[in-house]
Amino acid sequence: xxxxxxxxxxxxxxxxxxxxxxxxxxxxxxxxxxxxxxxxxxxxxxxxxxxxxxxxxxxxxxxxxxxxxxxxxxxxxxxxxxxxxxxxxxxxxxxxxxxxxxxxxxxxxxxxxxxxxxxxxxxxxxxxxxxxxxxxxxxxxxxxxxxxxxxxxxxxxxxxxxxxxxxxxxxxxxxxxxxxxxxxxxxxxxxxxxxxxxxxxxxxxxxxxxxxxxxxxxxxxxxxxxxxxxxx
Length: 232
Ligand SMILES: Nc1ncnc2c1ncn2[C@@H]1O[C@H](COP(=O)(O)OP(=O)(O)OP(=O)(O)O)[C@@H](O)[C@H]1O
Prior knowledge:
Protein name: ABC transporter ATP-binding protein
Strand content: 25-35%
Family: Belongs to the ABC transporter superfamily.
Mean pLDDT: 93
Organism: Bradyrhizobium barranii
Keywords: Amino-acid transport, ATP-binding, Nucleotide-binding, Transport
CATH topology: Rossmann fold
Function: Involved in beta-(1-->2)glucan export. Transmembrane domains (TMD) form a pore in the inner membrane and the ATP-binding domain (NBD) is responsible for energy generation.
Bound molecules: adenosine-5'-triphosphate
Shape: globular
Structural class: alpha/beta
């Protein structure tokens, strides 16, 4: 059975429909890449999964149970962990306080667990949120979400604006975490070839619809057809 199943989801903001009748599923431990040009609805898909965008029609299931009407907090409780594109670090809290805000009792990760994953956060634990580099902010945003013990991690352009060496470090950490903890990942990313190497499967969106999907290795082998949907 799929961990997350989305059935004919139509979603958007106010009156505006952004996603149309989108269906997809993610299994336990699977990594799904979401590709597409700017403005095609990739972030909206993440936001709709977290109840931050409006659902106009369709169903969302978790472990086979309908969660379409649950609030964001209830979805976090189920094990959905969203790392927003803007990172949303609390600037006036320290690194440690940012992490503790999200801590879930009895969860898989505590502070020490996060510091093992991201030793740099331990070094910076007394720094205020607004005194961090972009890479450290991203580590903190991911660490904070891990504190909620997700079974599915939703990553919205996690490598945006980061130096290549930091991107490499983060990619390795994420893949190691996934191997060790077995959670699933949905990752939105602009650098299509890189993310196809990391992921198991991928979907390509255009104007709120899935226009191409398949195993990442196969899409990588025939990258021309993916590229066609990504070039302006
Ligand atoms: N809060 C909002 N209210 C109204 N419309 C929005 C809102 N957020 C996004 N949109 C619109 O929804 C459409 C899809 O945006 P979305 O951010 O999901 O695209 P995206 O594929 O993630 O793009 P990008 O790669 O630029 O982040 C765009 O036309 C955008 O203007």
